[in-house]
Automatic annotation (TrEMBL):
CDD domains: KH-II_NusA_rpt1, KH-II_NusA_rpt2, S1_NusA. It comes from Megasphaera hexanoica. Residues 135-199 form the S1 motif domain. It comes from the Bacteria. The lineage of its organism: Bacteria, Bacillati, Bacillota, Negativicutes, Veillonellales. This is Transcription termination/antitermination protein NusA.
C-alpha cells in the first residue's frame, strides 16, 4: 500500500480545496506523460491508479498472437498463457510495462506538471464559486491601490474596483473593509477576474435586502432604484401585506436600518417612497419631500405635468435639478414641474385668447407642457428625461 501517495493526495485536497478525484486524474495524466519520455515507451500505454491503495501501474494493451511481429502491440500466446492459461490467440490483454526505476524518474518529471494542473484546478474552482455570486454583494478588504484602481482581497481571489465604478466622494485606504457589488466575473489564463462596483444601483438594492428582513422575506418588494452615487438616491417600495408599512420597514426603528446603509455609502442621502400602480400617485410620491398639488399624465407619451405650491418649487426641482432628475429615473416618466402661480397664469392666458379658438382640456395640457418663448424665460421649469436605466 502506497500510504505516502495517499497522504499526499489527502493533504493537497485539503490545502488547495481541490477534490481527491481531480488530483488523481491529474496524477494519472502526469504519470503517463513521464512514462512516454522513457526510452522504448509503449505509445498505447495507460495508467491504472488504485485510489484505495495508492498503487499504480503502467499498462499497455497487446493482442495475443502465435508469432510476435510488433512487440509494442503484440504478445506471444505462450507468454500470455503464463499470465493466464485461459488466454487464446486474438485476445487483447493489458500487460504491466512499468519501468523498474520509474518511481524516482516519475517524481522528478511530474513535479512541475502536477503543480500546473493543481493551479488550473484551483482557478477553475475559484471561478465557479464567484461566477455564482455575480449580481450579488460581497465584502472584502482593500489590499492595494494602483493607478487609482482599488484591489480588494476576497480571500480566495482578488477583485478590482476601477475608477469608473468608484463613488466620487469616497476615499479608499489600504486595510479598509468595504462592501461591493459583483458586476462581472471573467475566466482568464491567470484565473478569475472579478469586477466590482460601488456605484451600481444593485448595491443599494442588496444593502436593503441585508438590512430589511421584510425585503429578504418577500413581504416588501423593492420596485425601483435611482442613484447619483455619493450624493443622493431614491428607492420605491411596495408591501404585499396591507398590515406592513413598506416605508417604515425600510426606515427601521428610529431610522437605524436606513442609517446603516447611509453610513456604508459614506453619507449618501436616501429617499424611500411608496410605489403605486397609479402613475400620477407614484410620480407625486417620487417627488418627495416636496408636496404636490396635482399631477396630469399622458400614458401614451409617458409624460407628466406636475403642479406644486409656489414655496415648494425649488424643493421639488432640487439642487441643480437633482430631485426631479432622480424622480424621473425612478418612475421612468418625463416630468414637467410648475408652481401654482405659473400654472394659473398659463390658464388665464388661454382664457383671454379669442373666442373662436376654444381650447379643450387636452389643448390646455399641451400648452402647459410647452410654454411660449417669453413665458419660458420667466418660468422655473424642470423638464427631465429618464435617461438612465432603472433597475427593478
Amino acid at each position: 500500500m502506497n500510504k505516502e501517495l495517499l497522504n499526499a493526495i489527502a493533504y493537497l485536497s485539503k490545502e488547495k480545496g481541490v477534490s481527491a478525484d481531480v488530483i488523481c486524474d491529474s496524477l494519472e495524466a502526469v504519470l503517463i506523460t513521464a512514462y512516454k519520455k522513457e526510452p522504448d515507451a509503449n505509445p498505447n500505454a495507460v495508467v491504472e491508479l488504485n485510489r484505495l491503495t495508492g498503487d499504480y501501474k503502467i499498462l499497455a494493451p497487446k493482442t495475443v498472437v502465435e508469432t510476435v511481429e510488433d512487440e509494442d502491440a503484440e504478445i506471444s500466446l505462450a507468454m500470455a498463457q503464463i499470465l493466464d492459461p485461459e488466454y487464446s490467440a486474438g485476445d487483447v490483454i493489458n500487460v504491466n510495462v512499468t519501468p523498474k526505476n520509474f518511481g524516482r524518474v516519475a517524481a522528478q518529471a511530474a513535479k512541475q506538471v502536477m503543480i500546473q494542473r493543481l493551479r488550473e484546478a484551483e482557478r477553475s474552482i475559484v471561478y465557479d464559486e464567484f461566477s455564482n455570486r455575480q449580481d450579488d454583494i460581497i465584502t472584502g478588504i482593500i489590499q492595494r491601490i494602483e493607478q487609482r484602481n482599488v484591489y480588494v482581497d476576497l480571500g480566495k481571489a482578488e477583485a478590482v474596483l476601477p475608477v469608473s465604478e468608484q463613488i466620487p466622494t469616497e476615499t479608499y485606504t489600504v486595510g479598509q473593509r468595504i462592501k461591493c457589488y459583483v458586476v462581472e466575473v471573467r475566466k482568464t489564463t491567470k484565473g478569475a477576474q472579478i469586477l466590482v462596483s460601488r456605484t451600481h444601483p444593485g448595491l443599494l438594492k442588496r444593502l436593503f435586502e441585508l438590512e430589511v428582513p421584510e425585503i429578504y422575506d418577500g413581504v416588501v418588494e423593492l420596485k425601483s432604484v435611482a442613484r447619483e452615487p455619493g450624493r443622493r438616491s431614491k428607492i420605491a417600495v411596495y408591501s404585499r401585506d396591507e398590515n406592513v408599512d413598506c416605508v417604515g420597514a425600510c426606515v427601521g426603528p428610529k431610522g437605524v436600518r436606513v442609517q446603516n446603509i447611509v453610513t456604508e455609502l459614506q453619507n449618501e442621502k436616501i429617499d424611500i417612497v411608496k410605489w403605486d400602480e397609479d402613475p400620477a400617485v407614484y410620480i407625486a410620491n417620487a417627488l418627495s419631500p416636496a408636496t404636490v398639488v396635482s399631477v396630469t399624465v399622458d400614458e401614451a407619451e409617458k409624460t407628466s405635468n406636475v403642479v406644486v405650491p409656489d414655496y415648494q418649487l425649488s424643493l421639488a426641482i432640487g439642487k441643480a435639478g437633482q430631485n426631479a432628475r432622480l424622480a424621473a429615473k425612478l418612475t421612468n416618466w418625463k416630468i414637467d414641474i410648475k408652481s401654482e402661480s405659473q400654472a394659473a397664469e398659463l390658464a388665464e392666458q388661454k382664457q383671454d385668447e379669442p373666442a373662436g379658438e376654444e381650447l379643450d382640456g387636452d389643448d390646455l395640457l399641451a400648452d402647459l407642457a410647452m410654454p411660449s418663448a417669453p413665458e419660458a424665460e420667466d418660468a422655473a421649469v424642470c423638464d427631465v428625461e429618464a435617461d438612465q436605466h432603472t433597475e427593478e
